[in-house]
Amino acid sequence: MEVILVPAFADNYIYVLRDAASGKVGVVDPGDAAPVQAELDRRGWSLTHIFLTHHHDDHIGGAAALKERYRASVVGARADAHRIPGMDVALSDGDRTVFGEQTARVFAVPGHTSGHIAFWFEAAETLFSGDTLFSLGCGRLFEGTAAQMWDSLQSLRALTDQTRVYCGHEYTQSNGRFALTVDPANAALHQRMEEVAELRERNRPTLPTTIGMERRTNPFLRADDPGVQAAIGMDGAPPVEVFAELRRRKDHFRG
Ligand code: ZN
Ligand code: FE
């Protein structure tokens, strides 16, 4: 499965997918129709599927126009059916959805929003995590609790190491500045930040990342790590409480 990054707005990524075997073309979280349209035109592709991770405007804003133009099928969370217009396929945790020769498993990942889902394409080992898991960070808690978000992140953390992670925003460098304050002795994090700095200097995306990389470097996946716990003075505390404290600190972080 081919994945193309389409930058939108200030720091969003929209993803265009193509399953080579079937020729099906999908898009994940088209907050804006225009850049997607331009990418499809350039390649001479027609759209069949629109995958939506959550109801925020910067993720669904272009969906209606693209659906109208291509008669593409809108795939989203059943829990968000009341606030995502035009949903054709409504999915719940553990469901599978077919995209050409690919199958995606759906994870309900509440926290950023209550209905947020992530799509894991099994054979391609590719995750679309929306605003739940970012590289070196996680989404703000707008509609969910820290406990819900910690559960959600643990279910994504359990995916295969080599799973490529495509998230909703280019936040990696600013996330990393915070990460260094709560995991300062993590050599893998320092090394990743050097790579990130180089990429950003050349205006290149820092994505995809991988689950293995995030498990080693993302403090929000490391609330049960002794090094992180020690660095914030919470040795031996329940991971969910450590996670909540990390999220609170990040909310107030000015890097
Ligand atoms: Zn969002
Ligand atoms: Fe967003």
Brief synopsis:
With 255 residues, the protein is α/β, with parallel strands linked by helices.
Provide structural commentary.
The protein has 255 residues and is of the alpha/beta class. The chain has a single domain, classed as Metallo-beta-lactamase, Chain A, CATH 3.60.15. The chain is built from nine helices and 14 strands. It has a six-stranded mixed beta sheet, covered by helices on one side. It has a six-stranded mixed beta sheet with strand order 7-8-9-10-13-14. The chain has a two-stranded antiparallel sheet with strand order 11-12. The longest helix has 15 residues, at 187-201. It is globular and about 55 Å long. The termini are far apart. The structure holds zinc ion and fe (iii) ion. Zinc ion (ZN) is lined by residues 54, 56, 59, 112, 131.
Please name the defining characteristics of this protein.
six-stranded mixed beta sheet, binds zinc ion, hydroxyacylglutathione hydrolase activity, Metallo-beta-lactamase, Chain A, 255 residues, 9 helices, binds fe (iii) ion, Glyoxalase_II_hydrolase
Strand neighbour order, sheet with most strands: 1-2-3-4-5-6
| List of distinct ligands in this structure | zinc ion, fe (iii) ion
CATH class: Alpha Beta
Average of pLDDT: 98
Distance between the termini: 37 Å
Round the Cα radius of gyration to an integer and report it. Answer: 18 Å
User: How much helicity do the residues have?
Assistant: 25-40%
Judging from the principal axes of the Cα atoms, what is the shape?
Answer: globular
Strand content: 15-25%
Catalytic activity: an S-(2-hydroxyacyl)glutathione + H2O = a 2-hydroxy carboxylate + glutathione + H(+)
Subunit structure: Monomer.
GO molecular function: hydroxyacylglutathione hydrolase activity
Family: Belongs to the metallo-beta-lactamase superfamily. Glyoxalase II family.
